């Protein structure tokens, strides 16, 4: 997917991102001491801002040939489906182990705080699919990396990863197997 | 996983069972409701409740029902699991699902859509966005940061607890609770309790699928439940 330099400049300066950043609540010491948790639930309580968030993604991805939006459980389930619906793409939930019924493929990954495994239904993504991976936040990039792996194993091409928030100091951007990352808000500690 | 869709035979049955669809408002759903039985995938029949005179409604619900996959013996032997992920792979069916809920709730002064983790997170937000309502996630324990209130409940298979953020809903909020499926009604009942404890009015519970034999509606008592597809 090609985005011109001018498009990139306009997106980064989009005034809507200020409102988005202002509605995200930081909760200290969650889920454990020392972590400043970026809470998007307060964004979801502000309908115009939630709409702006989704609109920014829709504007970027409409007409770009995206056939799949894959959302990472559980907060990726909040942002992914509205994007999928607007651009006419399939929505694929990527889930923790033993949640998806039927045949799945699994990929292990390391979290910012622990380790886990992500699963996708066999047959959900197919060769020829152009996929977007969506989550609320990118930290170390481990979860997104596992999501990319699952989609690629199914033969799909991952076009980009899209998150509301990035924690740039954790360098997740570098761990996405060369895939581009699009975010709306950066959070620095 | 997907081959060509099975043929759908629609049989019109006499309205022996009257479904309380929209009876509180009457708009579009008042008068007689017809039952339409849909043959699905040779395994299970779904009864689709349709509004009188709503041809387009029936067609859309029949298409939605045909995209739902039944997985036997998941998560344990004897359970026929209603898998909505196949519907999410069909953009038209997914869009129809959301539109049917949005059509029902627009102009009803709904200020909050509440979604139960995790599949309620898939259906709730698009509805909330279309209505201009807040979206409030109800989550399993210890997932929500900050101050929460909790409610315990019995599942169809086990027990659990759900939590909601303090301050997410307020007195005078008019809420609709959304989940993919209602079985025993335990989860929805817990959700209604959380919302009422916070002072909100729960207008209705909305699900894609109902398993009527598990009598979830009884558990919800006077709280109306709206569903698109009933699965025997």
TrEMBL record, chain A:
Transmembrane segments: none annotated. Pathway: Purine metabolism; AMP biosynthesis via salvage pathway; AMP from adenine: step 1/1. It is found in: Cytoplasm. Residues 43-172 form the Phosphoribosyltransferase domain. Keywords: Cytoplasm, Glycosyltransferase, Purine salvage, Transferase. HAMAP family: Aden_phosphoribosyltr. Belongs to the purine/pyrimidine phosphoribosyltransferase family. This is adenine phosphoribosyltransferase. It comes from Leersia perrieri.
UniProtKB/TrEMBL annotation, chain B:
Residues 1-26 form the signal peptide. Its EC number is 2.4.2.7. GO terms for molecular function: adenine phosphoribosyltransferase activity. It is found in: Cytoplasm. It catalyses: AMP + diphosphate = 5-phospho-alpha-D-ribose 1-diphosphate + adenine. Belongs to the purine/pyrimidine phosphoribosyltransferase family. This is adenine phosphoribosyltransferase. It comes from Leersia perrieri.
């Amino acid at each position: 997917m090609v985005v011109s330099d001018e498009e990139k400049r306009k997106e980064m300066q989009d005034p809507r991102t200020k409102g988005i950043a202002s509605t995200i609540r930081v909760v200290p010491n969650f889920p454990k001491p020392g972590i400043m948790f970026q809470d998007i639930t307060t964004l979801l309580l502000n309908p115009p801002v939630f709409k702006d968030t989704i609109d920014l993604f829709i504007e970027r991805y409409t007409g770009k040939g995206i056939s799949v939006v894959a959302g990472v459980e559980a907060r990726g389930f909040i942002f992914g489906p509205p994007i999928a619906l607007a651009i006419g793409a399939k929505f694929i939930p990527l889930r923790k182990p033993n949640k998806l019924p039927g045949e799945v493929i699994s990929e292990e990954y390391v979290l910012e705080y622990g380790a886990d495994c992500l699963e996708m239904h066999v047959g959900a993504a197919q060769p020829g699919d152009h996929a977007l991976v969506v989550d609320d936040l990118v930290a170390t990039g481990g979860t997104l990396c596992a999501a990319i792996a699952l989609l690629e194993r199914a033969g799909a091409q991952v076009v980009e990863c899209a998150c509301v928030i990035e924690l740039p100091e954790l360098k997740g951007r570098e761990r996405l197997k060369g895939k581009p990352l699009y975010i709306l808000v950066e959070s620095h500690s | 996983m997907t081959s060509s869709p099975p043929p759908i035979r629609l049989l019109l049955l006499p309205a022996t069972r009257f479904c309380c669809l929209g009876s509180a408002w009457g708009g579009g759903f008042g008068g007689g409701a017809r039952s339409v039985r849909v043959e699905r995938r040779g395994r299970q029949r779904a009864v689709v409740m349709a509004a009188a005179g709503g041809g387009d409604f029936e067609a859309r619900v029949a298409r939605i029902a045909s995209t739902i996959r039944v997985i036997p013996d998941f998560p344990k032997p004897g359970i026929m699991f209603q898998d909505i992920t196949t519907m999410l792979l069909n953009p038209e069916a997914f869009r129809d699902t959301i539109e049917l809920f949005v059509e029902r709730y627009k102009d009803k002064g709904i200020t909050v859509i509440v979604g139960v983790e995790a599949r309620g997170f898939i259906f709730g937000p698009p509805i909330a966005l279309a209505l201009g309502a807040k979206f409030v996630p109800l989550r399993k324990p210890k997932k929500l940061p900050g101050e929460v209130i909790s409610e315990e409940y019995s599942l169809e298979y086990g027990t659990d607890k759900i939590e909601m953020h303090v301050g997410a809903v307020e007195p005078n909020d008019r809420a609709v609770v959304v989940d993919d499926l209602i079985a025993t009604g335990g989860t929805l009942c817990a959700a209604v309790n959380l919302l009422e404890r916070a002072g909100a009015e729960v207008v209705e519970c909305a699900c894609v699928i109902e398993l009527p034999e598990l009598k979830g509606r009884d558990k919800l008592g006077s709280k109306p439940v709206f569903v698109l597809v009933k699965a025997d």
